[in-house]
Amino acid sequence: MINHYNTLFGGMAMLLMDEVAFITATRFSRRRMVTVSSDKVDFNRSIAAGALVELVGVVTQVGHTSLKVRVDIFVEQMYSSGREKAATGAFSLVAIDENKNPTPVL
Ligand SMILES: CC(C)(COP(=O)(O)OP(=O)(O)OC[C@H]1O[C@@H](n2cnc3c(N)ncnc32)[C@H](O)[C@@H]1OP(=O)(O)O)[C@@H](O)C(=O)NCCC(=O)NCCS
Fold first, then answer.
1. For ligand 1, what atom is nearest to the CA of residue 33?
2. pLDDT of amino acid 103
3. How many domains does the chain divide into?
4. Is residue 49 part of a domain?
5. pLDDT band at 102 (very low <50, low <70, confident <90, very high)
6. H-helix or E-strand containing 10?
7. How many CB atoms lie within 10 A of CB 15?
8. How many helices (H) and strands (E) would you count in the chain?
9. Share of the chain above pLDDT 90, in %
């Protein structure tokens, strides 16, 4: 999970963000969801090994068969207070039926 700077590998951060986007979309729609696009991912701060992270997903837009989720990663140190946003990304997910065709989100 860690790169040669001893901070979280960016690809791992994106994996975690995609998982949270999926969970957020699924909890919102209670349908089978797949990721169709990642719109943008910004890395604002590095995440040192041993830090605590919290990922928060929010549905920001609802279409017919698709929706958008923003995922923020917050970082905090284990033995001091304070919390900072380390990364943010936007993902589009599509609801699919049992034949894997798009189906209404709601
Ligand atoms: C998701 C999938 C079923 C959509 O099929 P499709 O034939 O492109 O579907 P449509 O063109 O009818 O579009 C369906 C919806 O997706 C949206 N969409 C399609 N491509 C998109 C893209 N690149 N970015 C954002 N939204 C997109 C459309 O706008 C539409 O939204 P709406 O109904 O809310 O208006 C198909 O692309 C697929 O199976 N992709 C692979 C998914 C996958 O394996 N993900 C990784 C693992 S989860």
1. 48
2. 98
3. 1
4. yes
5. very high
6. helix 10-29
7. 12
8. 1, 4
9. 99
Nearest to 51 by CA among 13, 18, 20: 13
Instruction: Read off the CATH number of the domain in which 16 is found.
Output: 3.10.129.10
Distance 93 CA to ligand 1 centre (A): 7
Query: Whose Cα sits closest to atom 5 in ligand 1?
Result: 102
Q: Which of 39, 46, 1 minimizes the C-alpha distance to 18?
A: 39
Closest-CA residue to 70 (of 96, 104, 41, 102): 41
70-100 pLDDT tens trace: 999 999 999 999 999 999 999 999 999 999 9
Question: Taking residues 14-36, what's their average pLDDT?
Answer: 98
Residue with tokens 């920001």: 60
SS3 of residue 104 by DSSP: coil
The residues lining ligand 1, judged by C-beta closer than 6 Å to any ligand atom, are: 34-37, 63-66, 92, 94, 96, 100, 102
